[in-house]
Design a protein that fits this description.
about 220 residues; alpha+beta; Jelly Rolls; 5-stranded antiparallel β-sheet; 2 helices; about 40% strand; globular
C-alpha cells in the first residue's frame, strides 16, 4: 500500500515537472551565416502565418554584443492583418533582459495568435542606434507552429507597423523574436525538459520494483 502511494506521488511530480517546461522561441539563428547590420530610424521585422493557435508570452530582440548588452532600449510589437497592434513591450538597454541564444526577452501577459491568420512582428531602432539586426540569412530555423512570410520594414521614429516588403532584404530582418506556448497553456515542450522528469520517474519505479522483489 505504501509503495503504491509513493509511486503515485512520484508520477504526479514527474508530470508536473514536465508540464512546467518554459515557453520556447519561434525563431532560432544558426551561427553559420548572415550579416549583422545597424538599421537606423526604422521599425524592422518580418511577417508570418500561424499554423496552430498559440499564445505569445515574451518579446525579444537580437543582441549582437551579448556581453555588454544592448546600446538602446527598443520597442517590440506584433500587428494583426488589420494593422492593429495586439502585443508590445520594451526591451531595455544593457543586460537586464533575459538572454537566450543571442536574443534578449521581456515577458508579457499572454496574447493569443489564431491559426490561419497572418501577423507581423517589428522592432523599432533609433536614428543613431548601434544595435544590430541579423539580415540576409539563408538558414533561419522557425518552429513549425508558424510559416515565415517576408522581411518587413518602415521608416520613421517610434514603433510603427512595418508594412513595406523588406527594402530588398528578402532573407529577413531578424531583430525581433518571440516566445510562445500552445493555446490553452500547454507548453511547446523541448525534448530535454519533457524527457528528464519522466526518465526520473522511470528510474524510481524500477528502484521500487527491485526493493519489493528483495523483500519477498
Amino acid at each position: 500500500m505504501k509503495t503504491c502511494c509513493l509511486l503515485f506521488r512520484v508520477l504526479t511530480f514527474a508530470l508536473l515537472a514536465a508540464s512546467s517546461a518554459i515557453a520556447v522561441p519561434v525563431l532560432t539563428l544558426p551561427e553559420t551565416n548572415g550579416n549583422t547590420q545597424a538599421i537606423a530610424n526604422t521599425t524592422a521585422g518580418w511577417s508570418f502565418t500561424v499554423n496552430q493557435t498559440i499564445q505569445v508570452t515574451a518579446l525579444g530582440l537580437f543582441d549582437d554584443a551579448s556581453v555588454t548588452g544592448l546600446t538602446d532600449s527598443h520597442q517590440i510589437g506584433i500587428w494583426d492583418s488589420s494593422s492593429a497592434l495586439i502585443a508590445s513591450a520594451t526591451v531595455p538597454s544593457g543586460t537586464a533582459a533575459t538572454l537566450v541564444s543571442n536574443f534578449r526577452y521581456v515577458s508579457i501577459a499572454p496574447v493569443t495568435l489564431l491559426a490561419g491568420q497572418v501577423y507581423t512582428i517589428g522592432a523599432s531602432f533609433l536614428a543613431n542606434s548601434f544595435d544590430y539586426s541579423n539580415i540576409f540569412r539563408t538558414s533561419a530555423v522557425f518552429n513549425p507552429v508558424i510559416t515565415y512570410g517576408e522581411a518587413r520594414t518602415v521608416l520613421g521614429s517610434g514603433l510603427n507597423n512595418p508594412v513595406d516588403s523588406g527594402f530588398g532584404l528578402e532573407q529577413g530582418v531578424f531583430g525581433p523574436n518571440f516566445d510562445f506556448i500552445l493555446a490553452g497553456g500547454a507548453p511547446e515542450l523541448d525534448t530535454v525538459s519533457a524527457t528528464l522528469p519522466l526518465a526520473f520517474a522511470s528510474m524510481l519505479l524500477l528502484s521500487l520494483k527491485r526493493r519489493r522483489f528483495r523483500s519477498l
